[in-house]
Design goal:
Elements: H1 9-18, H2 21-24, E1 36-42, H3 61-69, E2 71-77, H4 83-92, E3 107-109, H5 116-122, E4 126-130, E5 137-139, H6 154-160, E6 167-172, H7 184-187, H8 205-234, E7 241-247, H9 262-265, E8 266-272, E9 281-283, E10 287-288, H10 292-299, H11 314-318, E11 331-336, E12 353-358, E13 361-366, H12 396-403, H13 409-419, E14 425-429, H14 447-463, H15 467-470, H16 474-478
Parallel strand pairs: 1-6, 1-7, 2-9, 2-10, 3-5, 4-6
Antiparallel strand pairs: 2-8, 7-8, 11-12, 12-13, 13-14
Helix pairs in contact: 1-14
Length: 494
């Protein structure tokens, strides 16, 4: 399998300067038996919806255990807030904008890119998966199992595996992806009166009920993780296994999934590996889900392929301290290409954007501000017939925010934050606006920081070979889209 075109020598030097830890921990051979590797990944679970992060309503005992016995990351980010590109970036260890058509949802994964389970399988690991793996989409070579062959369950895989070899397993779930059974959260005993909706949502019974239904499925995913941990313990393999639990993108609500604010790209992440990491720590360094692939390879004693841009997390896992550890991890990059073709006919494009996040600021570059960030409200003129704000999953919160947008100024402001067009640049001061609701990019007093962040983002994107900066971005919108739109919903009767 050939590898993808990576970068020029000058660009490689720039990336090496930006990420000084990359070369040092590329091949860190383990002193003992190679660890088992387990990745448990949710579908649309966002930060900070776990007890370990202080959410007092949702119950996540398995994740909380991993955070308590392992390392809890407070600044973990996905490459893209969209299933297919996020999972592709995680599997390949590089930003989604480097993956050609696989930068989009419902796309074709090119043969040119290797996934870390494939590399580990060639190195002697027993590889398998269950549930949702890469996708939705299809591979260029039909039948290619990027995360390993599917098994009935993790327990079935454990019972059938070769006992003399380490294993790498992808534990996928469809939770908490929509649709939800309306009222399932309340029926399960989740107290609606204790739910505090994110600042980008109105506070209403409809929204609280919708969040409770989401929490119910988060808890179902956590139960899946708990059963996997119990199986590892019963097999005597838990302490021999590097366990990673995370998600692909944020909750499927307005201004979350498919949006590059923290509500869309900031991920839960806990890692337990007693053989190689001191537990009971919280780490505030910025990490990317693209770092998981090189971490697994390094733990197995393998050097990552030359085209991986992620950085192994082993130095952080092996560190003694907590909080901020590596001064070079003071920022993270992420962005989005096409989620669904959600614009007006005949435009089959998405809403391309990139961002750089530091501890103090979030800077966003929107490449097509003339387009609708959450899809056109004009379902009759949508690229896919009757698609309705199609970059946002249908649900009670979406319906309420659209139907009640003119109720008062507060409702209108939240509607605009989720669905209205956005300027080419956004800048948020996270020290005073952690919810990222007040765009200060046009403030003359912030011009210096805006210019500096814009230049740094452009420099890093150019080094990574991003077509949005180096040219050829039209390729993202020429690749086929294999899925469907989000159907129009008739307004509910008041």
């Amino acid at each position: 399998m050939k590898v993808s075109r990576f970068r020029s020598a000058a660009a490689a030097a720039l990336l090496a300067a930006a990420f000084p830890a990359a070369a040092a921990d590329a091949a860190d051979a383990p002193a003992t038996r190679r660890p088992n590797l387990l990745l448990a990944i949710a579908d649309d679970w966002g930060f900070p919806h776990a007890g370990a992060y202080g959410d007092a309503v949702v119950k996540t005992p398995a994740f909380d255990r991993l955070a308590r016995e392992g390392v809890l990351f407070t600044n973990a980010y996905t490459s893209s807030p969209s299933c297919t590109p996020s999972r592709g970036a995680l599997l390949t260890g590089q930003w989604h904008w480097r993956l050609r058509g696989a930068a989009n949802l419902w796309s074709i994964f090119p043969d040119a890119f290797a996934a870390y389970p494939e590399i580990l399988a060639k190195a002697g690991y027993v590889v398998g998966s269950t549930g949702k793996a890469w996708g939705p989409g299809r591979t260029e070579t039909p039948g290619r199992a990027l995360a390993g062959a599917q098994h009935k369950s993790f327990q079935d895989f454990l019972s059938r595996r070769a006992k003399d070899a380490p294993f790498c397993f992808w534990l996928g779930s469809g939770d908490p992806h929509r649709p939800y059974v309306e009222g399932s959260g309340a029926a399960a005993g989740i107290p609606l009166d204790r739910i505090a909706p994110p600042a980008c949502f109105p506070d209403s019974p409809e929204v609280r009920g919708d969040i409770a239904d989401y929490y119910f499925e988060v808890q179902r995913f956590d139960d899946l993780v708990g059963r996997a941990l119990a199986s590892l313990e019963a097999a005597g393999e838990l302490d021999k296994t590097l366990v990673v639990v995370t998600s692909d993108n944020g909750m499927p609500f307005p201004r979350c999934k498919s949006a590059i604010y923290d509500t869309g790209v900031r991920m839960p992440l806990a890692i337990r590996w007693p053989a190689g990491s001191k537990g009971g720590r919280r780490i505030d360094d910025f990490v990317s889900l693209t770092d998981i692939a090189p971490t697994f390879l390094a733990a197995a004693g393998l050097a990552p392929p030359a085209d991986m841009t992620g950085r192994s997390l082993l130095p952080l896992l092996r560190a003694e301290g907590a909080g901020r550890i590596d001064p070079g991890r003071d920022f993270v990059l992420f962005g989005k290409e096409r989620h669904v073709p959600s614009q007006e006919r005949p435009d089959m494009g998405g809403y391309p954007c990139r961002a750089i996040r530091t501890h103090e600021f979030l800077y966003i570059r929107n490449f097509t501000p003339e387009r609708w960030p959450s899809g056109t409200p004009n379902h009759e003129r949508a690229s896919f017939p009757r698609s309705w704000y199609a970059d946002c999953d249908n649900g009670p919160t979406k319906a309420y925010m659209i139907e009640q947008r003119d109720k008062d100024a507060a409702h209108r402001r939240l509607y605009d934050l989720a669905f209205a067009k956005r300027p080419a640049e956004e800048l948020y001061d996270l020290r005073t606006d952690p919810a990222q609701r007040a765009n200060i990019a046009a403030d003359p007093a912030r011009a210096e920081i805006r210019t500096a962040l814009a230049a740094r983002l452009t420099e890093l994107l150019r080094a990574s070979g991003d077509p949005r900066v180096v040219g050829g971005a039209e390729v993202f919108e020429s690749h086929p889209y294999l899925g469907g739109g989000v159907p129009y919903e008739e307004p509910r009767k008041k």
